[in-house]
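Need residues for this backbone.
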């Protein structure tokens, strides 16, 4: 395995000694946010995990290996190069590894990499899901299949609101993926706390979430768990305002015939432009909020 994975010694030590570790993805860096905000966010999110008592592990594909624990220079590189870096979901891993091409890992490939390294908790912004035009485009994020099969908990602010939240919940149910709400019974909708939909179970402490994860995997009930953590109230955007913005962004994407892996980065950027940067501020804040919760869950889980 060492041929294909490169784990930072500090992280390897933490994993071996059952200390809390939180995985962080890199598509959000290269494709989810503009430079230099992406770099500042990626560096700060690591600090937030550390100051909450866990070891951060930013993940990407580098030099023909899955790299667990990027250096500051590597984070800078992925930030600055942005769109030029390949967006790597599960299907892209073997090509990028064998050709030694760098790749920014999505939720799906970061989950896979985390499982390979032995990391159980992962923090991001929002997971991918079923796109609104899925009945004709078949566009369903690989994140959902990964959640169906890989034993990692993803702490997020819900399903990205550019998607069909209802269909995404149905898909997750079919595949046996629990959707938890941290201190909420309502599914958060990324930029907003409310969605009008329910999570499967509300849990109010990191300890209870760690208990659920532990029992799930102890029973070999394989697959991931979605831990939804609403964006802080003071940082959320108005639901109706965002609905209109997202509809507009999706309309533009259709006109320009944007498809496949380009669609999510396109919509996030369009929404950012249409909100004059307000959505980016919310996106950053919700990532910070998720990193802190993930660290707390990782600490509880490490004591099991
Ligand atoms: N969360 C964010 N910004 C992002 C993403 C998540 O706040 O850019 C990324 C994740 O890497 C996720 C990807 O896996 O968006 C989904 O892409 P797609 O819809 O193509 O599967
Ligand atoms: Mn897709």
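Answer:
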């Amino acid at each position: 395995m060492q041929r294909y994975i490169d784990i930072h010694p500090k992280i390897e030590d933490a994993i071996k000694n059952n200390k809390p570790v939180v995985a962080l993805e890199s598509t959000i860096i290269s494709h989810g946010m503009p430079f230099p905000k992406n770099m500042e966010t990626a560096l700060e999110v690591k600090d937030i995990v550390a100051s909450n008592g866990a070891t951060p592990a930013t993940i990407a594909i580098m030099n023909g290996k899955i790299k667990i624990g990027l250096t500051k220079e590597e984070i800078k590189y992925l930030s600055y190069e942005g769109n030029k870096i390949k967006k790597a979901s599960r299907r892209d891993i073997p090509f990028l590894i064998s050709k030694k091409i760098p790749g920014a890992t999505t939720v799906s490939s970061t989950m896979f990499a985390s499982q390979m390294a032995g990391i159980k908790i992962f923090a991001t912004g929002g997971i991918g899901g079923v796109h609104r035009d899925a009945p004709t485009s078949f566009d369903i994020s690989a994140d959902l299949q990964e959640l169906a099969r890989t034993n990692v908990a993803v702490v997020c602010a819900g399903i990205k609101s550019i998607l069909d939240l209802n269909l995404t919940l149905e898909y997750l149910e079919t595949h046996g993926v629990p959707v938890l709400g941290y201190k909420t019974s309502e599914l958060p909708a990324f930029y907003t706390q409310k969605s009008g939909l329910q999570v499967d179970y509300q849990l109010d402490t990191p300890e209870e979430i760690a208990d659920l994860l532990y029992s799930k995997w102890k029973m070999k009930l394989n697959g991931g768990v979605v831990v939804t953590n609403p964006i802080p109230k003071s940082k959320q955007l108005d639901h109706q305002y965002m609905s209109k913005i997202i509809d507009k962004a999706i309309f533009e994407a259709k006109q320009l015939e944007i498809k496949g892996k380009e669609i999510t980065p396109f919509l996030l950027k369009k929404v950012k432009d249409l909100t004059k940067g307000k959505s980016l501020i919310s996106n950053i804040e919700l990532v910070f909020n998720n990193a802190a919760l993930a660290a707390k869950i990782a600490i509880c889980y490490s004591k099991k």
